[in-house]
Write a structure and sequence with these properties.
This protein is an alpha/beta fold. It folds into two domains: 227 residues, Spore Coat Polysaccharide Biosynthesis Protein SpsA, Chain A, CATH 3.90.550; 75 residues. Helix 5 packs parallel to helix 8. The two termini are 32 Å apart.
């Protein structure tokens, strides 16, 4: 989803935000969420293919199509499709917010028990959707696509991506080979406590794994891009490095930020205190003959800096603890997920 013309006419559905966290779910329905950005060349072809595949599955479904501030005829085409087909929901965003935000908008308006996300540039094959549904029916909460045989440039795309995915898997503790692909299927309930910001769409498996979501991978094809050009390359490695830190924090320390910052604060504090203690003892023992700052000035400066840094780390951790409590209490987001409830001999799933 990397390609962007004229602003389309108004959307065919009410643009008021859904009440609460979204419209009422429809049992047994599938929702296919597709963000578009200047994909006029492939929109109709993709939608026709999605209809064909979903009709073949034979279950109720809807297509939630999001125009992420497209400036070509993408919005106009999507508007016409939505007006002619009640199974299509078209969302037009005011400007280009980015892929993650467009996906979040689609998730907010989706009504299905199972939500399938994919790109709008035909690099994801709709014929592979039944593979994802099969894994969800087997009991998995998330089925994540895995581009086993990628068609991208080896040095500019494939090698950096392989390294980044390996590091993300190690940082998150989630054994996924391909974090970058949008092609995934989710049970609706696993998305209820996840809000997407920045580039977080690739972290959804990691964020959900924190609550015990069962995740599997589905090998998928990676056909050549049919529209636009990719904005992802080796230049994004800096962003990936920050993503790895974000992933590690979300999966390991979201509910206990003081443990993350406090650990480094204690280490810095101990080292700094040891340096300053050494200087103090030397000065006391050799009060008249030992010139502390002349002989160990740089070392003492390092000691002072480490103590100050330790104080800042611990203060940041305490601030994070307060913000975390405000967030969970204000939003009522849960720090747990219930797989099953048994009461009086009856059993039902729940989250």
């Amino acid at each position: 989803m990397d390609s962007y013309g004229e602003k389309s006419p108004g959307p065919s559905r009410d643009v008021e935000p859904p009440a609460g966290r979204g419209p009422a779910p429809v049992a047994g329905m599938y929702s296919v969420v597709v963000p578009f950005y200047n994909e006029e060349a492939v929109v109709e072809k993709l939608v026709d293919k999605l209809r064909e595949v979903m009709d073949r599955i034979g279950r109720p479904y809807e297509l939630v199509l999001v125009s992420d501030g497209s400036r070509d005829r993408t919005g106009e085409i999507l508007d016409a499709i939505a007006r002619s087909d009640r199974r299509v929901v078209y969302l037009e965003l005011n400007r280009n917010f980015g892929q993650t935000t467009a996906l979040q908008a689609g998730f907010d308006y989706a009504r299905g028990d199972v939500i399938i996300a994919m790109d709008g540039d035909l690099q994801h094959d709709p014929d592979e959707i039944p593979l994802f549904i099969r894994k969800i029916d087997e009991g998995f909460d998330i089925a994540s696509g895995w581009r086993v045989q990628r068609q991208d440039h080896l040095l500019m795309r494939r090698l950096p991506s392989r390294v980044a995915n390996w590091l993300l898997a190690k940082a998150s503790g989630v054994d996924v080979h391909d974090f970058g692909t949008t092609f995934k299927a989710y049970r609706r309930e696993v998305l209820q406590d996840v809000r997407l910001y920045g580039d977080m769409h690739r972290f959804v498996p990691a964020a959900c794994a924190r609550l015990g979501a069962r995740i599997c991978e589905v090998p998928i094809s990676n056909p050549p891009r049919q529209s636009g050009k990719s904005n992802y390359g080796i230049g994004r490695m800096f962003h990936v490095a920050l993503d790895i830190i974000t992933t590690r924090f979300i999966t390991g320390y979201l509910t206990r930020p003081l443990h993350f910052f406090g650990k480094w604060g204690v280490i810095a504090g101990l080292v700094g205190s040891g340096i300053l203690g050494y200087g103090f003892v030397r000065k006391v023992i050799q009060w008249d003959s030992f010139q502390l700052m002349r002989e160990h000035g740089p070392l003492m400066a390092v000691g002072f800096m480490l103590v100050i840094t330790a104080t800042l780390f611990i203060a940041t951790g305490l601030t994070g603890e307060l913000l975390m409590r405000i967030y969970f209490e204000a939003t009522r987001a849960r720090t747990y997920a219930v797989r099953r409830i048994v009461r009086s001999g009856e059993s039902r799933s729940g989250r």
